[in-house]
Structures are given as structure tokens and as C-alpha cells.
Amino acid sequence: MSTTVTPTTAPLPEAATGAAPTRGRGVGTRLHGLLGAVPTGVLWILVLLWTLPSLGLFVSSFRSETAVKTTGWWTVVTDPQLTLESYRGVFSSSTSDAPDMWQHFMNSAAIAIPATVIPIAIAAFAAYAFAWMDFPGRHWLFVATVAMLAVPFQMSLIPLLQLYVNGAHLTVFGETFTLLPDLDLQGTITAVWLTHIGFGLPLAIFLLHNYMASLPRDVFEAARIDGADHPTIFWRLVIPLSVPALAAFAIFQFLWVWNDYLVARTFLSIGSTDAPMTVRLATLSGSRGQDWHLLTAAAFVSIAVPLAVFFALQRYFVRGLLAGSVKG
Amino acid sequence: MSAVTMDKMTKVYPNGVTAVSDLDLDIADGEFLVLVGPSGCGKSTALRMVAGLEEITDGTLKIGERVVNDLPPKERDIAMVFQNYALYPHMTVEQNIGFALKLARLPKDEITKRVHDAAKTLQLEDWLKRKPAQLSGGQRQRVAMGRAIVRDPSVFLMDEPLSNLDAKLRVQMRAEIAKLQRDLGTTTVYVTHDQVEAMTMGDRVAVLREGLLQQVSEPERLYAEPANLFVAAFIGSPSMNLLEATFERANGDARVVLSDEQSLDVPAAVVADNPELEGFVDKPVVVGIRPEHIFDASIHDDRVDASGPRLQADVELREALGSELVMHLRTTAQRAVTDDTRNAADADDAVLDELERQAESGEALLVARFDARSRARIGDRVELAVDTSQLHFFDPETGNRMSA
User: Are residues B360 and B317 in the same domain?
Assistant: First the structure.
């Protein structure tokens, strides 16, 4: 600061005032430029910090068991010895009592696909009704639906398991009513995707409702005048116009279900042939964790599908997150 | 083609707000009726009630001979054009125009034929395969029109269809819509807040204010004989100068006193035309003077009465339009500011503030349309001649026009 003050007290005001702003601007511009670069710099540091472990994992997955267990992954720079040994280990890990990885891959798909498609199908109807149909109690029903987002699903794992094992029965004055019959769902793939559907629905309804509610009212009125009723408006207008939101939710839900371990681990018995990849991969490290090097490759085998989905649909992913906040 | 009859049509919203009250309107078969008024006057609500988008609280609405109060929009045989077009963004122009026909399960070749006919009428043939996002504002507007005319309905309903277009296009589309309506002969109800649109397009114009019908008549009559202060202040651009004055009679001559220094003689013929005036001797009245009836007294042509009364004013603003000059002139007179005139200012705060300032200062800002030859400049003092045969008189209490 002192340097910018001194010139004004200098004996030659013309020269001083002539020079002072120039110097001040010079310092200011440089400082401003420096400060302007700070957020970008911080961002880059964050990006590096966040990427480094994944990079290490990726490099390790291509190193041999001994190399992984004796040296750090960064030594690959000086000693570049890469092998597909771990990947071979992951795919050939089937034993006589456990099916191969391909079977578990298909299990994951058998869980993730219905758990993605069904909630969207239900939520689209619900969201349309909440957004554009008048019925008594609409507001409070919607509030209740959104409030379900707050239910921690870890808390409901045991009650759900009870439900799948025994069904639900209510005894009032010695009379027993069966609310849900015992469908013997425990240990089945159905139990897994059913749970995912239940916990996916509130978010799906919320997201789709917000998107659909932001569609211009005039278009709906024009359609009514053109002779369209609710089903026509839903199928011919709302669904085609909601593709970005539908795709965004589909990605979210698919990634979440594909990467899920807890739900599958809870409702399927250990070593089940119906287990999804995540559950199977977790057993790869062996009973004493001696084969942990395999997990590096397993992680990337598991990530492959979500990555493919993300890159294929990332246009919708970004747009969908903004859904409803900006028009267009 | 059908007539539209509204009988005491009323809309009260669940929160108790009355948007339209006891609206009586008979719209003849093939007529172009414009509903006009400042924002919030209920004109759009009235239109939406005809469309079936708003429920009718009370009264009856007939299209043709049918009472349609409880019919859904699609059974009313109407088509509507919306302010922001409301096109279906994911459909092509062809699909947009043909949507209603498709829903009505018309045969495919019939739909194609009618869509192409409509597109030809509206010069949209080259754009049939485009989506709305690829069209200009004017073209989107045409598609919206196409969607209406393709159905050949009994009634067209248009809700400020031109307000999203730029000024030049608006003038062009105004003429096109008016011509199209004449060619098709379809009964049309057209809502606008733009009184120029109302005056140029309508066979008749209905002026609404706060849900109440003020006046329905031909544009010329509306302009020449506004029924009350609100209509007088709302219709006309620039709008009518409204001044508080006292009506006096002396020796058979009548005059209105605008201020201590200024007054205007009222010709006997005008008094005879407004017999109610006799009841206002020495009482306050509101005098209305259209801008085109105030002249620069220094220009001599046959419109200026050489011996007529003169007003003194200072030029505050001069807008040269080439063909004429719009002059804002400050003079000693009391500006009439009532709820009517405030309402007609359409809730424009700047305009309202100016009105209040004038009402307090005892000086009124007159707007006059001078001959382009006038040499008056800003700051000059000018003498004004007034065509006193064209004065309008209103009762300051009720706001109603004095008439025979």
C-alpha cells in the first residue's frame, strides 16, 4: 500500500500523478490476474487429489501380484511391467460351486434393468398426476411422497427382510388379517429389485414432477382445445417432452442399483448363484483377504458398465440435473 | 359459423376474487369482436371461459343455439390462438397443425389435404417439415393460426396473439389476421391490451375494466363518444387530455373555466348536444380534448378558428414524427385524476406518478398533435387554439359522459 501512497506526496505532482496510476494499475492487474487464477489452480489441485487414488488403482490392476504387494504403483514410471494377470484372475475365479463372472454380470443386469425401468414407468404417471391433474389431497400426497426421501433405507432392511420372509399379518381382537401374503421372496433376485424400486420411487416422482410442472401450461391448454384428454396429453406431449428428465433419472437409478452391495448382500444368501457382481467381487479377496490384489482389476470390471452408461448418456446427465431450474 | 352470446357471465375465483362480473355480450355470426382493457381487467378470463379453460361461475354462455357452460373445450367447436403460441415443440409444423384433426380420427389423406390448404393460406408450405424451434416469431405465430384455421371451427378465440412480435411484424400480422378473418367469415373474439390493435381490427370493440363491461361499440363511435372517463382515457394514442373545469353561463354564452386565467368558450351547438350540461352550471365538470383538436395558433389553416379562444402553454417536449409533431405542453389547468384515469394508465407507475404530480401542481401537461410546420421549440411559449366543437364533457362524480 505504501508504494501507491508515496507518489501523491511527491514534489512533482504532474509526473507523480502521471506515474502513480500506471504503476498502481500494473500491480493491480497482476494481482487481479493472480487472484483470478487461484480458483482454477485450486480446482486443478482438487482434480489431481481426487483422481490420484483411482489412477493408482487403475495402474495397480495391470501389475503382477508380487509387484502390487511389494512396491508402490508409482514405480511403474521407472519399471513399466504391465500384465493382465489380475483380470485373468477375476474372470477365471469360478470354482466348482460358484458360477463364473459372466453369470454374475448377468445377475447384475437382471437386477438393475427392472429396478430402473419399473420405477420410471410408475413415477411418470404419478408425476404427471401430481403436476397436472386436480384431485383432492394432491398437495399432501405429494408432500408425503417427497417426505419418503428422508427414510434411511438401512433402517428398513430388517423390517423388509421380515416382510419378504413372513409376509405381513395384523392381529386385531384375536382376528388375523393378512396384509401381504408370505411370498417367500427372501434370497431371490425379485426381492432385490423390488427393494430398489421402492426406494427409487420417491426421488423419481420428485424429479419428474418438478420437470413436468415446468412444462408450459399453454401447451397443455392448446392440447385440450385440440381435443386431447389426459391419456393423450400424457403419451403425446408429456412423455416426448420429458425425455431429458426420464433419461437423467434412469442413469441415476441404474448407477445406484448397479453399484449397490448392501441391499443385494442383505436379501441374497452368501455365495448365492443369484448374487450380482458387486457381491461376488467382494469375495474375490479370499477368506483371509490374501487375494486383495484381484480387487483392483475387479473394481474396473465393475465400473465398466456404469462408465459406458455415463458416457453414452452424459448429455442427458448434465441437462437432467438442471431439469426444471432453467427453461428450455 | 356461430354467434356467441354471453348472458350475465360471471367468474369468481375460489379465493373470492371476481374476475368477470355480469358480462353481457352478443357477438354476431362472423363478427370480429375485440375485448380490450388494461392488464387484470378480466378480458383473458372472459376469453378462457368461452374456451372452456375456466369454469363459468354464473350466467350462461351460448355458442350458436347451444348452451356450452358445462361442455369441455373440445365439444365447443372453438379454436384458440395463445399469446406465446403454445406450439408442440417436439412436433413438426405439419404435425402441429394436424394434431387436432388426428385426434378427431380424420382419415390420413383428408388430414394431409387440410393441413396443406391451411399452410398454403398462411404461406407455410416450405416450413412444414420444420420444428417450432427452427422458425422465426412470425412463422410460429402463423403456425398457431394454422392450427386454428385447419379445424374450421365456429369460433376463433385469440389471446393477445401479436404481443410477442416486434413492432413491424405486429403491424403486418395485424392486417393479415384481419384479412384472414374477413375471408373465412369465422366469428372471432380477440383479446388485446393494445388499443391500436383493438381499433384497427375489430368490427366492434368491448372495453373492460375490473371485470365490468364499460362500452361496446364500433371503433369510430368508441373514439368519438366514449361512454365514460375510463374509456376516454384508455382509447386513443396519445390519450385524451382530461381537465377539471367549471361550467359557466353568462348572457346565453357558455364557457368552461380551466383556471383563473384560462377558459374555453363552448359553442351553443355543443351545449345543445350535451343537454345534461345545463344541470352543471357553476359546477365542476371534466372536459376532454383529443390531442388532434389542439392546434398551434400561429399556423393559419382552416382548422384554426381565427377568433376562437386561446390557451397559453410552454413547450415541455417535442416529438417529431415527420408527418406531425406530438407536443407536450404545460399550461395552468387542473388535470383530472380519478380512479378511472388511473386505471386507464394500466398500472404504469411512471405514468401514474406524473398524473399525481400534475394533479397537485395545478399545472396540466397537455398533449397535442401539431402540424409539422409548427416552429414551436422546447421552452417556447405558444398560443393554442382549440376546436371547441369537439369537446367532450364528463360528470366528475360518476365519470359518465354527458349526453342526450
Answer: yes
